[in-house]
Amino acid sequence: MKKLAPSILSADFAQLGAETEKIEKAGAHIIHVDVMDGHFVPNISYGATVMKSLLGKTKLPFDVHLMIENADKYIPDFVTENTGYITVHQEACTHLDRTIEFIKSFGVKAGVALNPATPPQTLEYVADKLDMVLVMSVNPGFGGQSFIDNALTKIKKLDDFRKKNNLDFEIEVDGGVNLSNVREICDAGTDIIVAGSSIFGAEDIGNRVGEFLELL
Ligand SMILES: O=C(CO)[C@H](O)[C@H](O)COP(=O)(O)O
Ligand SMILES: [Co+2]
Q1: Reported ipTM
Q2: Closest ligand 1 atom to the C-alpha of 140?
Q3: pLDDT in tens, 35-73
Q4: Where does 3-215 sit in CATH, by number?
Q5: 111 is in an annotated binding site
Q6: Catalytic residue status for 77
Q7: Does the pTM of the predicted model rise above 0.90?
């Protein structure tokens, strides 16, 4: 089953609880949490305190997308009863294998994200340890950007690679996903769809989640 993970980066932060409730009621599967440090990416978003403000208000798992340097230092802050996945960037981790093991030591699924310019082959020697690979289809740092088409080639390569090697990591796609391109992105082999501005920018957020779910 394909899963929908709305990114709260584009939510109205003054209404974060209410907007989260709307996406949960409408059937979204996961909450995507974008953490930006102003160093690895040229923007600062929010940290663990904001994510933790949703604890007790939603049953949905958190999918933590760490766009930060020194991830090992901050990973423990993001481990909560709702935390399903923690994903770090390949480009930001010197000791990627160690960081993956560190995430898994908390009983949380481990993901690695790849920037648009990063080839999928870079994950060859850690792929058997991974629960998820996040294919960035925009350069990370901002919501509301346009989908970079060659992400489709990368998704297909990763899908072939996991089939050939009998691996079971999930493939997540993040950036510029909308109602017009989501079907093609799913067909390429994606399991988890992240969508921020195309959900939280809609007039009726719940209705938009429903429209996405029909297409998954
Ligand atoms: O990681 C991200 C940006 O770095 C966001 O998850 C992503 O951009 C989602 O926003 P949108 O759907 O508006 O592109
Ligand atoms: Co993200």
Answers
A1: 0.98
A2: 4
A3: 999 999 999 999 999 999 999 999 999 999 999 999 999
A4: 3.20.20.70
A5: no
A6: no
A7: yes
